[in-house]
Design brief:
Structural class: mainly beta
Order of helices and strands: EEE
Number of helices: 0
Helix content: under 10%
Largest sheet: 3 strands, mixed
Distance between the termini: 34 Å
Bound molecules: FE2/S2 (inorganic) cluster
Shape: extended
Strand order of the largest sheet: 1-2-3
Strand content: 15-25%
């Protein structure tokens, strides 16, 4: 499962640590769908039905899948561990 989402930032998003609660865990969005990027807002739950081997293209608001395609660059499978018998 992979997705294309629209991001138009051309530089870093600065986070002032003074604005964060030191007692709270901070979750950074890794799915790209958060409306509060770079912070996770729970939108990743929409990715749960995505299947391996498919590329999902989201609309400009990153709310709906508008296209699916075979993933031309699927994640490589991890290499087999070395066989100590060989
Ligand atoms: S990881 Fe993207 S919204 Fe949670």
């Amino acid at each position: 499962m992979a997705r294309l989402v629209r991001r138009e930032h051309s530089g870093p998003i600065k986070i002032d640590p003074k604005t964060l609660d030191p007692e709270k865990l901070i979750s950074i969005c890794a799915c790209g769908l958060s409306k509060n990027f770079p912070f996770c807002d729970g939108a990743h739950k929409g990715c749960r039905s995505e299947q391996p081997g498919t590329l999902y293209v989201y609309d400009a608001q990153n709310q709906q899948v508008v296209e699916t395609r075979p993933d031309q660059f699927p994640t490589a499978t991890p290499p087999e561990p070395p066989n100590p018998q060989a």
